[in-house]
Amino acid sequence: MSGHDQLVLCLCELTRLLWKLLLPLVFLCVLLVAVVVLLVVGVRLWLQTNRNTRRGRDGRPTVAFFHPYCNAGGGGERVLWCAIRALQNRYADINFVVYTGDQDVTGQQILDGARRRFNIVLPRPVQFVFLQHRLLVEPSLFPHFTLLGQSVGSIFLGWEALTEFVPDLYIDTMGYAFTLPLFRFLGGCSVGSYVHYPTISTDMLSVVRERNPRFNNDDYISNNLFLSAFKVVYYCLFALLYGAAGSCSDLVMVNSSWTLDHILALWRAPNRTSIVYPPCDVSAFLDIPLHEDGDRKCHSIVSIGQFRPEKDHRLQIKAFRKLMEKRGEGPGGREALRLVLIGGCRNQEDRDRVLMLRGLCQELGVADRVEFKLNIPFEELKRELGEATIGLHTMWNEHFGIGVVECMAAGKVILAHKSGGPKLDIVVPFEGGQTGFLASDEDSYAEAMNRILTLPPANRLEIRRNGRQSVGRFSDQEFEACFLAAMEPLMGTLER
User: Fold this and answer.
1) Does the reported pTM lie above 0.90?
2) DSSP structure class, residue 467
């Protein structure tokens, strides 16, 4: 037998073997698919039975908000409480639930915190479902592949929430998009989302492609061509999964033009997506006097924002040091300047970050001119803003910037990052007049602060007036009107 004949014989035998194995493999695949389908159907029926039992007991539908950090003091929490207040005022025959992971407080303490920090009081109580496994979405648990780890963790946390309480309408207000298909397909719920910041964006991909070091792109990655290429592939695959999860939402609300552009590119649901600017308590700051400050001997620069890495408080401290170098030691110099960092700490990681920032102040020799004020009451926040000259913001591609709006409402000259929401939506000309300043790095921030401080008091006053008048479109009342209009189609599907 020739070599060619032997090869043909071997190929025939191999084909027969594969054919014999094919039918069992097909049968096994069909069996596995059937088991998965039956399991999903069984779980869905079980969850719907739980919901029907609860509906029979309560006699009314329930809207649930997924906000594992609802006791934090940031802008996202202000959106949550204003949203619930608006819905409670409009719909008296609906119950409201908040899924939270804040195990160290009671429901009443959470509501007291909302009143103290945001001056928000709900018309009637809400039910809290306390989740045991919030650790699964903590970034510290995933030092590498953080986006993927937190997203997978959110699925498990969402499963815990769903099994604890099955709502009629589910709203994610913290950006955990991977919980949306869970509640829609397993829970049988209508689902909506309010997106503050896309988990991944084309800007993040650009940073990695261009190998620029950022808080989410460490130096050892940006300096390595192979690791950068691998991270680009990882980000692209994750973006596909994120887009598929987000597209499950029946209703999508975003907080700014910047977020809208990215969500439309990723989730591809233009007919279900609209901008609802977040509520900013502008009215509470309008009674701060607005007058020339030429006789002010000490100028304070105030920053408002949670102590998260992306807020870039390091840039604020470094720019402040450069400003003091520019101003020198004479009148109006170092002793006449004060930097006040105001913000909330969500967890131990944030508290550790504050300690590192304090250490940076010591290292740069500005510790005596920098103050940290953590989780302060609303009245103290208002007092600090009343005494300030400049409102400072340094987050690159901030999705919106509630702190920026609050500073402008308080009549401060705002200096914000030249990107994201502040650039596109907030620090924009108002009736032809300037409303603030934008910067992008240490030198431009220091230069802008120095320019603001050297402006004639009358010119500063004009910018402050323009800024205050321009923020009326971000008031609580505007948010409630736009939020209720966006929610009306989903609320109309609830069976009373």
Assistant:
1) no
2) H
